[in-house]
Amino acid sequence: MIDSITTQRDGHSSVPLTRSEIRAERRRLIEAIRALRRLLTKRHAFEVADQRRLNREAKQRSHAEAVHGKSMQRIAEKQARQERSLTRKMENLGGKRDHRERQALTVLRRESVQRTLSSTRLTASQINGIGHGLIRDLAAQGITTAADFKRVSWGKAPNGKGGEVLHIHRTRGGKIHINGIGEHRGRPLMEWRRSAVARAEALAPRQLPADERHRIAEIIEAERTRLRQELAEAPLAAEASRREAVRLHSEALARLTAAERQAGHRAAERRAEFDALAERLLALQADLSAHVAQYGDAGRRIRAVQSRALRPMASLHAIPSPRRPVDLAKPAAAAAPAPGARAGLGWLLPILYFAFTTVVGVGELGENTAPIWLMIASRLFALAATTELLRLWIPRRRWQTAGRMPSGTGWQSAGVFLALTAAGMFADEKSDVFLLACATSVLAAFLLLVGTGLRTNPELQKGAKTTT
Question: Which of 128, 145, 281, 377 is deepest in the core (most CB within 10 A)?
Answer without folding.
Answer: 281
